[in-house]
Amino acid sequence: MTQKTVAVLGAGMVGVAIALELQRRGLAVTLLDRRAPGLETSYGNAGVIARSSLMPFNHPKLWGNLPGLLKNQGTGFRYNPAFVAANLRWALGFVGNARASVFAETTAALDALISLSTEEHKRLLGEVNELGRLRDNGWMFLYRSLQAFDAPGAQLGRETMEQFGIATQTLDAPAISDLEPVLAPVFAKALWIKDSYSVNSPGAVVKAYAQAFVARGGALKTTELRTVRQSVTGRWSVVDGDGIREYDRVVVALGPWSSQFLAGLGIDVPMGFERGYHMHYAAGEAAARLQRPIYDTAGGYVLSPMEQGLRLSTGVELNACDAPMKPQQLEQAEAAARQALPLGPRLEQPLWMGRRPTLPDSRPVIDEMPGRPGLWLAFGHQHIGFSTGPGTAALLAARMLGDAQLPLDPYPFRASRFL
């Protein structure tokens, strides 16, 4: 029997994990992207693998926050009005999904996906001898006032984590100092999310997974992807900068570029782009003692200890995928971070930016494209593509290969929600 062939388009965490899993299941896999694995959004994130990430940005308390967000002055959220106006289908859908019923479905679905992915990450890190990159000491949400800690959105987050059995601990100012002595006394309260993980270089993890894929016989191709098309035989042709090659199946895992790529096939994907910036800073003697990622809820940034230095990741800039960068959000976040601990100088130029691809209900699509057999979709993971790539891979492979028992419920991730 001839071995089935699959082309996986996109070499971020999601695409690399899918390539590895399909290869493990016996398929002949080619992984294609315009850049080497893990150099786009999967490179620059905060490296957190946490069930607390089940909380979508469009939760039911968003309505109360909208007046402040629309002022467009916050550090944690900025938007381009022209982009929103040009993408009303997405914007109205995103806000419209901030309902209790959708929230309940989304949190349950994301918790299952993150939980599965966490176990898969641990398995893969062990296989590639990179478990030393994994920390298991959780991360912290920091609040500069008691009022912020008691705000409706923060309360909903704590209630939801308790509902799903996520281990947390509330800390007052002295307890914060005991856990992270490097932090200045600017935080009144914190939530320590204890049963979560982080890594010291997300890009290096993706690279290690990709190297394992190649070492096991996988084909990795760096090329400019142009389109795909289905032949009369039902197979799929991938057209790239080097020509055309046929495969039995194709997986589109191009992250924020998935919508643009699929538009060439007449498929309209309602996708928003929650862009974010990061910068590494020299970790002076004091700052080097930060033990885990921290999220300053007022400052609008996450600060993570990385092998490159301390990485500051900003909140959301809602804008076109490839619009020019705007450094103001990073500058504001950096100023807030310097109030919290003694950051050293910036370590890199130019500024790095990633794009978080977000669908209207904050859930990814993990499914076969309706009406186009053999065309599989895996994108829309918003802020948690790095943490949920391996679980996405397990679900997609199980469905592609017709497993009788699936690792989690595929219904919340169906393509027919939007396509």
Written description of the protein model:
The relative contact order is 0.21. The protein is α+β, with helices and mostly antiparallel strands. Strands 4, 6, 7, 8, 15, 16, 17, 18, 19, 20 and 21 form an 11-stranded mixed beta sheet that branches. The mean pLDDT is 95. It is 32% helix and 26% strand. It contains 12 helices and 23 strands.
Extended strand count: 23
Gross morphology: globular
Instruction: Enumerate the spans where pLDDT stays under 50 for 5 or more consecutive residues.
Output: none
What is the share of helical residues?
25-40%
Ends distance: 34 Å
Structural class: alpha+beta
User: DSSP strand (E) fraction?
Assistant: 25-35%
Key words describing this protein structure:
419 residues; 12 helices; globular
Task: Describe what is shown at a glance.
This protein is of the alpha+beta class and 419 residues long. It contains 12 helices and 23 strands.
Topology:
Blueprint: E1 5-9, H1 13-24, E2 28-33, E3 48-49, H2 62-70, E4 77-79, H3 81-86, H4 88-96, H5 100-127, E5 134-135, E6 139-143, H6 146-149, H7 152-163, E7 168-172, H8 173-179, E8 189-193, E9 197-199, H9 202-215, E10 219-222, E11 225-230, E12 236-240, E13 243-247, E14 249-252, H10 258-263, E15 272-283, E16 294-296, E17 301-306, E18 309-314, E19 316-318, H11 328-340, E20 343-346, E21 352-358, E22 365-368, E23 375-379, H12 385-400
Parallel strand pairs: 1-2, 1-14, 2-10, 4-19, 6-16, 14-23
Antiparallel strand pairs: 3-9, 5-9, 6-8, 7-8, 11-12, 12-13, 15-18, 15-19, 15-20, 15-21, 16-17, 17-18, 22-23
